[in-house]
Amino acid sequence: MPVVTKKPGGLRRLLDEVGSVDQVGVEERVARYATRSLKKNAKVFGLRLAASMVDLTTLEGKDTPGKVASLCRKALHPHDEAGVPPTAAVCVYPSMVRHARRHLAGSGVKVASVATAFPSGQSPLKLRLAEVRAAVADGADEIDMVINRGAFLAGELARVQDEIAAVAEACGASVLKVILEVGELESYDNIRAASFLAMRVIRPGDFIKTSTGKTSSNATLGNNQVMIEAIRDHFLATGVAVSMKPAGGIRTAKQALQFLIAVKETLGDGWLNNQRYRFGASALLNDLARQLEKERTGAYQAPWTFSEATEGY
Q: How confident is the model at residue 63 (pLDDT cuts 50, 70, 90)?
């Protein structure tokens, strides 16, 4: 990850306040997570837990009500024979919220919607807020917003924070997930600073989130580690528990288990549930089901025996 040497004054002051990131230390820490191995009952527990944390996602221009209906059926019953639990949510564009709501109402699986001119976040604030209110009115339980990365990198921190606060208000009772788009923030220091900027204005139970899944760099163990350490430090300082969602590029059960190990060792068991931790993913659910089927039968099934993953994050 490139190191940015010149930062606007406001961003420098925030970094002085929240502290910089030891990049070498983070990379060494996450490298150790990749060496861990879960066996038998612990592995089955982890696989089922990861499945219950998935926000099953489709974010394509060709999405249709029929495609969303199929995704909702998969979210409710990923693979009954292998004991795969329902996912945490189905995440769609605002225009598809009412269709998802029709299939998920009363099920416990939440309807999530990206909003605020996803993925760029570059439309006028008035339009972004109107999109949030429309999605909530159509039945979105959760809203995934994107911050204005240009404003953040220019040091316009009050503007970024005011916009997050305005979106949180527009969400009403719906949960807010604030997407930092870490691939555009240029450094671990900036990721930590942006995490604190968001956490100071969102509500307990709201999320900070790595990525839209629409850039070349998305959720990595390193980015995740910087953000969960920020959540830990914020919790120790304020007592406010903020939730976390890595998204983009997490496609295998092995990856998901490594992320869960990171959470357990950094934040503890209190974050090992789908109110505090989520995966933004589509292909991941198929591999989790395949691994659980292998644990049940002792043999791997061919990948095509599972329903095709919907391309999304």
A: very high
